Amino acid sequence: MTSKSYIMGVDIGTSSTKAVLFNERGEVICREATHYELVTDETGKAEESPTEIFEAVITSIQGVMKDIDKTELRGISFSSAMHSLIMVGADGELLTECITWADGRSSEALENIKRDNYLFQLYEATGTPIHPMSPFAKICWLKEDEPQLFHRAEKFVDIKSYILNRLFGVWVMDESLASGTGLYNILEHDWEFEAMEIIKLTPDYLPKVVPETYQLHGVKKEYADLMGIPENLPFIVGGSDGALANIGIQATGRNDVTITVGTSGAVRKLTNEFQVDSRGRTFCYGAGDGYFIAGGAVNNGGKVVEWGLQQFGSEGEIMNRDFASFIAHIDEVAPGASGLLFQPYLLGERAPFWTNDIRGGFVGLTINHSKAHFVRAILEGIAFNLAEVYEAVSAPDDIIYVTGGISGHEAWCRLLADILDREVRVPHTIEGSSLGAAIIGMRSLGILKTLNLEQTLPIKAVYHPSGNTKKYAELRPIFKQVTTQLMASYSMLNSWQKKFDYNS
How far is CA 352 from CA 220, 266, 297, 405, 406, in A? Predict the structure, then answer.
């Protein structure tokens, strides 16, 4: 690969698509992002337009290609958000929008399926938690609630499969995304029989599963011309955003763990073994090249910090979206917020509970608590929840890599190091998933022999646990006990909200 030879990583996310051009050292040359809307309502809907996302992919690639000679581009590789579902009819007709991971409308249908089937063995076979986010649950819901539409379906696909079909006219799905559907047995490299029996579909209704390094050639001329790329350019199918984020920041060692807090959050660890949790707290998906990704995604991350800013920030902090000033308030009070605990479950929760019934709240509130106590309690609550997820995959010598927008705040990184009692590192790049896709692309094209870049990229900052770890070690079990004891009350409160038609 010469200095004038590049590869592009395209990350299809929930809020935007980013096309990022890299050289062989993993350095960013240029980037282009196109945003789109997530449509939600009180029913739990969380959908996006597949055609709008397709246009965002074209526009983003087009924007990057304006600055380079198209002969310098070696290939385009993809990353995509997990758990999306699109129902497609004859001749590619869209029967649904893109139903995202955040859509909760399948909750009731999933409960009905649980009553008639032992689904924990499905989790053990697929590594996908039994939760409304999964395409398995979404298909059960569509079959129950939209039977006429369901019977018109010819394919059930994800957003990346849809985009590649528009570009190449074939239905393919990478194995890492397939392993997050709740329908795929990653160890057998085939669709899981028990899951297919429950939804009463055959594999013909699903895309062909291919390796993450699989190449497609011969993009349709009209799109090649629009994007400004050669028609014979290799497109590498790539993988899921979570797995590729770990690969992108080169957290590929057996004790490397990433904790990401963006809008939501996640704990992820690459492993050579398929491992599920006896308590069902975590997922385990394929990551490519013989790796699996174990961990858990949480609903309550940066969105909860944003809520906290709106409720407890100053007028100036709210107006300017000044998260740095808002988060800095935690240093005004001691660790533990004088006994104020925050249950951060404002959006239900995935890991480690996998339920939409859970709720948020402050516990231990007294007249002596100030705004700074609330700010610290909010951040500590998010960190305590992530610590519960991390506990399921932890090992004594783990090193934590902190990513996502909040990783730029020193106070958050120090807090996480203390609560986890682990060294915390802030990696070199915010383009983890895009770079991970590019690395998969370089692996496919023979530029790399492994998933590791030839040169180690620098770490921006390192944080070590302080003397606060003992205080947090005593507070964590209290946080866990509060959550456990309130769970039944949360469920009753949720039922009351639904009964009286509140926006629950």
Answer: 44, 11, 8, 22, 21
Neighbours of 43 (CB within 10 A): 10
Model pLDDT for residues 105-149, shown as the tens digit of each residue: 999 999 999 999 999 999 999 999 999 999 999 999 999 999 999
Q: Which helix (H) or strand (E) holds 10?
A: strand 6-12
Coil, strand, or helix at residue 413?
Answer: helix
Q: At what angle do helices 107-116 and 135-145 cross, to 10 degrees?
A: 90
Alpha helices in 152-200 (DSSP H): 159-168, 175-178, 193-199
Angstrom CA distances, 94 to 23, 56, 90, 159, 445, stand at 37, 18, 9, 12, 33
Classify residue 148 by burial, with Cβ atoms within 10 Å: 0-12, 13-18, 19+.
Answer: exposed
The average confidence (pLDDT) of the chain is: 94
- Take residue 41 and report the two structure tokens written for it: 């309502």
- Residue with the bigger pLDDT between 355 and 235: it is 235
Quick one: what percent of the chain has pLDDT higher than 70?
Answer: 99
Q: Between 469-499 and 410-420, two packed helices, what is the crossing angle to 10 degrees?
A: 100
Question: Residue 50 is encoded by which pair of tokens?
Answer: 């597949």
- For the chain, percent of residues with pLDDT exceeding 90: 87
Q: What is the DSSP string of 28-91?
A: EEEEEEEE-PPEE-TT--EEE-HHHHHHHHHHHHHHHHTTS-GGGEEEEEEEE-SS-BEEE-GG
Candidates 212, 204, 149; CA nearest to 179 is 212
For the record, the structure tokens of 118 come out as 């032992």
Provide the pLDDT for residue 494: 85
| Pairing verdict, β 86-88 and 98-99 | unpaired
Query: Average pLDDT, stretch 85-110?
Result: 95
- Provide the angle, in degrees to the nearest 10, between the axes of the packed helices 410-420 and 371-391: 50
Distance CA 208, CA 172 (A): 5
Closest C-alpha to 206, from 182, 173, 179: 173
Q: For the chain, give me the number of helices (H) and strands (E)? A: 17, 24
Q: Do residues 53 and 12 touch, judged by C-beta distance below 8 A?
A: yes
What values do phi and psi take at 107, rounded to 5? -55, -50
